[in-house]
Specification:
Strand order of the largest sheet: 1-2
Distance between the termini: 40 Å
Low-confidence stretches: none
Length: about 110
């Protein structure tokens, strides 16, 4: 939720926040979750009130839950990472070469 609030519709900013969250995951998962998320939000330019409002945004929470439900029930995603290339589901870690081979073969047709 915090990443979506910070980035709004800016995909590069969203992924930068996600990277930051993963790097600091030990802090916000195991202890002081609210404090750590507030600090991260403030580092990204949000005020204390904006962070609090974001984390209490029921509409955003409902949207995320709907996305998760769609992924699980419709797309049948049940593991991370899961990728889709031209509609084909690919589960698990993949190398750049594996992705390149799949994508390049589609570009040649």
């Amino acid at each position: 939720m915090l990443a979506r609030c910070i980035a709004k519709d800016d995909a590069p900013k969203y992924f930068a926040v996600i990277d930051l969250l993963f790097k600091q995951q030990g802090e916000w998962v195991m202890k002081n979750t609210a404090e750590t998320l507030t600090r991260i939000g403030k580092q990204a330019g949000l005020t204390q009130q904006q962070v609090e409002d974001c984390l209490k945004d029921q509409a955003l929470l409902d949207k995320i839950a709907a996305d998760q439900k769609f992924a699980a029930e419709v797309l049948k995603v049940n593991s991370t990472p899961t990728f889709f290339i031209n509609g084909e589901m690919i589960k698990g870690e993949q190398t750049f070469e594996e992705f390149s081979k799949r994508i390049n073969s589609m570009l040649k047709t």
